Amino acid sequence: MAAAAAGPGTGSGPGDSPEGPEAEAPERRRKAHGMLKLYYGLSEGETAGRPPGSDPLDPTDLNGAHFDPEVYLDKLRRECPLAQLMDSETDMVRQIRALDSDMQTLVYENYNKFISATDTIRKMKNDFRKMEDEMDRLATNMAVITDFSARISATLQDRHERITKLAGVHALLRKLQFLFELPSRLTKCVELGAYGQAVRYQGRARAVLQQYQHLPSFRAIQDDCQVITARLAQQLRQRFREGGSGAPEQAECVELLLALGEPAEELCDEFLAHARGRLEAELQSLEAELGPSPPAPDVLEFTDLGGSGFVGGLCQVASAYQELFAAQGPAGAEKLAAFARELGGRYFALVERRLAQEQGSGDNSLLVRALDRFHRRLRAPGALLAAAGLAEAATEIVERVARERLGHHLQGLRAAFLGCLTDVRQALAAPRLAGKEGPGLAELLANVASSILSHIKASLAAVHLFTAKEVSFSNKPYFRGEFCSQGVREGLIVGFIRSMCQTAQSFCDSPGEKGGATPPALLLLLSRLCLDYETATISYILTLTDEQFLVQDQSPVTPVSTLCAEARETARRLLTHYVKVQGLVISQMLRKSVETRDWLSTLEPRNVRAVMKRVVEDTTAIDVQVGLLYEEGVRKAQSSDSSKRTFSVYSSSRQQGRYAPSYTPSAPMDTNLLSNIQKLFSERIDVFSPVEFNKVSVLTGIIKISLKTLLECVRLRTFGRFGLQQVQVDCHFLQLYLWRFVADEELVHLLLDEVVASAALRCPDPVPMEPSVVEVICERG
């Protein structure tokens, strides 16, 4: 038992000998145990398998660092019975065997590593020994080299000083040789045209010659060089004034002249004068492109020509000027700005002339591309010449063209609307001329609405190109704010809607002017179009505009409700005018039928007059026409005897009183007084009351105007007995058919009652026809 208990503590490694000193055994075990803990990353005092909360100093803890076998065995003998001791022994033997197996496995698995580590350490020892030997030899060699270097330096010290002096003398002689050869070198450079090399030679020697000009030899060299330099400057000026070379060559001439000491202000003026000549030639070539022949290039090609020619030349001039004459200060900068401002203004005028030729074009894509390139080209000169304001002027031109394009598209929308109206007129007139049925009003209305909406969308798409992200000027404040709100929304869309309403209202002029020649069907169609705009189209168009053009401007805009109110008012006026026109047409027929007949000598009525049949037919046609575009409307409850009521009114007690045999012409005042008293108690009829947007209201207005006209015409005539009876028959016929078209059938009864009553008042012998006879005549008619 003791041997088994001591097994885990002592281990079975090859280095542990039971015959060793007793004091060294625990120390070696602790050392091995510590190395294992270090290898497996265990902290001090931490051991696998120890129960949590146990005392690390407990001598009976098998896994503890302070385990004491004797104490552990004494404890087991005291506390455990024999069976438990036997179980503990068995368990401990099993653990010892498991630990031995684990240790052997560990040794076998790491054996190659141990061998490799041993070989590596052995090689490192050998390599370090060789390296130490080589370092020792190197130190010895360095000491020898240092000694040799010191002796060589001491030997060559005197010679080094002499060599340094000789090198200085040699450099001085080369400089003197260069000075003596300078006139010939300058002459040769001038003859060969190497002006830049000559100026560099002169610049190298100028300070020396100036310093030693009191010496005769140097004075002579300086005089010769001045003569040659003067001739060089003259040739450079001649080359500069000829102007045959480009801007870089002329800038080089100016640079060389400045290096030769020529006055900068004079050269500045000459430089700008020569640059003006070249740029004016570019402007003249652009102006020639605008001539009548040959045909001018498209606007994109024109802006490319101007950008590569004039604008590119202006950039070169500005860059060279600022590089050459930077010492001139603000005065020189202002001179350059004035130069660029003048020529830039002429260039802008040519560009605007070419852009004006594009106003008749309906395609914006090419124009926007041209404006984009024009604006991009002027960025560089705008940055170089900020004081000249070229970039701002270019932006103003682009904005002005955008405004003009908005006006052009507005005119296009107006022309498209007028074209649609012309097409409607032709479609309404063509069937009548050919004697066949034409397209219905609903179809014509749909065609007009879709055509106008498609034109509006096309115009929005065209002007939206000005705000595209890839366009260089789209980020300008005008195109992010005012162009979208005041230009597109207010100027184009709201302006067109109001123009459309004004054009539609112009058809409501008094007869004899423009409105007299307007087909009534066109008035009805326009009224429905304006009503549709009020209910849905205006809101849709403005919402579409606001979505495409994200307005960032806070300026006030026209509310949708205001436009809808204007469109509704236009629709109301058109529909009211339609009622008046149609009422006037029927009234004219009734007036002529009354005025052209001799009512005193007319024969006894046998049938309904043809004009009354025509009135019913026209009213029915109007009912069908209005029903194509407007809803039915609301009617009052109709009586079951509507077709008989008129006649029953005529035969009432009131009429019997009027037509009684006791009626004689000797008492006209009494009859008129009775009629006037009865009118006081009858309902007043407003002939020109407001028209609602439904079929019943429209027909009611037309019938009121027609019957009121009939009443007024009857009041101007005198009737015989048979004339009164003919009026009675005609009115009963109208009652049979007209009551179904109006909102309140009582209105037809009242007006026709007034017509017959007025005819009776103007009849010397008012004897009415029997109701049964009237009915027979009307049914036969």
TrEMBL record:
Organism: Mustela putorius furo
Role description: Involved in retrograde transport from early and late endosomes to the late Golgi. The GARP complex is required for the maintenance of protein retrieval from endosomes to the TGN, acid hydrolase sorting, lysosome function, endosomal cholesterol traffic and autophagy. Acts as component of the EARP complex that is involved in endocytic recycling.
Coiled-coil zones: none
Region (Disordered): 1-66
Species classification: Eukaryota, Metazoa, Chordata, Craniata, Vertebrata
Record-level GO cellular component terms: cytosol; EARP complex; GARP complex; membrane
Entry protein name: Vacuolar protein sorting-associated protein 51 homolog
Main location group: Golgi
Any one GO BP annotation for this protein: protein transport
Gene: VPS51
Family: Belongs to the VPS51 family.
This protein's record includes keyword Metal-binding: no
